[in-house]
Amino acid sequence: MDVGFIGLGVMGQPMALNLARAGTQLIVWNRSADRCESLRAAGATVATTPAEIFKRTRVVFLMLVDGDAIDAVLGRATSQFGANVAHHTIVHMGTTSPDYSRGLDADIRKAGGSYVEAPVSGSRKPAEAGQLLAMLAGEDAAIESVRPLLEPMCQQTMMCGPVPNGLLMKLAVNLFLMTTVTGLAEAAHFAERHGLDMQQFRTIVDAGQMASGISRVKIHKLVTRDFEEVQASIVNVLENNRLIADAARAGGVASPLLDVCYALFGETLALGHGQSDMAAVVHAFEARTDSSK
């Protein structure tokens, strides 16, 4: 039986490629058809519509930008929804609000399907290398049925409990990511404005106890001012920030660092850097410094 994959963006395309290269009988669809060509070359079948995927598969991975995009491909709130999801396992690998996922889970199960949350931790390069970490939530039987399919994409999978715990875990991880990268950008701005040798600064950060995979990637971007090769864009990070803030408010959880990050990423977007890598948040620090002179 073919496996479906819908959504071939920055993350979805390399993830699907790893599935195809592992020998998975894969059928894919993407709104922008040109994103499908590398999958076709890797042996995947390219569907002309999402409906074709549901007709030919029983497991469908979704790596889509938001709930509206998911609802559109599933035909949610239309007569086609039941036919699309009944007897299917729908695997949601993107990032949406926990409340949205909880409602989608209920609708899919009511229509006779199964639902698995599998948001991933990692950016484009880990996606290309098949080194993502998936945070799984849902019914045990559904999770175990798709877990082997995740192996070409993910070096590790973690069971997080019932829906929406997978997405709540992803948001918690992303909160750490955002505050870490924002702090690194502020440190780089401090060093640069004090006239320090930025290559030496990078070497010291890379050699120190705070060094990590993400710090090494982002300090390189900050020192070389290369924000065009995007692992996660300012727009994407700002939306994730909003999702975390909403979940924090709903749970009555204080999030002062997150709130500062939201302001800074919003300022970076307003400065015209929405499609740049998240390390471009340094522009917000620079603008604040220059405006204070």
UniProtKB/TrEMBL annotation:
Record GO biological process: organic acid catabolic process
Transmembrane residue ranges: none
Pfam families the record matches: NAD_binding_11 (PF14833), NAD_binding_2 (PF03446)
Ranges for domain 3-hydroxyisobutyrate dehydrogenase-like NAD-binding: 166-284
InterPro entries: 3-OH-isobutyrate_DH-rel_CS, 6-PGluconate_DH-like_C_sf, 6PGD_dom2, 6PGDH_NADP-bd, HIBADH-like_NADP-bd, HIBADH-related, HIBADH-related_NP60_sf, NAD(P)-bd_dom_sf
All copies of domain 6-phosphogluconate dehydrogenase NADP-binding, residue ranges: 2-161
Keyword vocabulary terms for this entry: NAD, Oxidoreductase
An example molecular function term from Gene Ontology annotations: oxidoreductase activity
Oxidoreductase is among the record's keywords: yes
Active site per database record: 170
Gene3D superfamilies (alphabetical): N-(1-d-carboxylethyl)-l-norvaline Dehydrogenase, domain 2, NAD(P)-binding Rossmann-like Domain
Name this polypeptide is given: NAD-binding protein
Species the sequence originates in: Paraburkholderia madseniana
Higher taxonomy: Bacteria, Pseudomonadati, Pseudomonadota, Betaproteobacteria, Burkholderiales
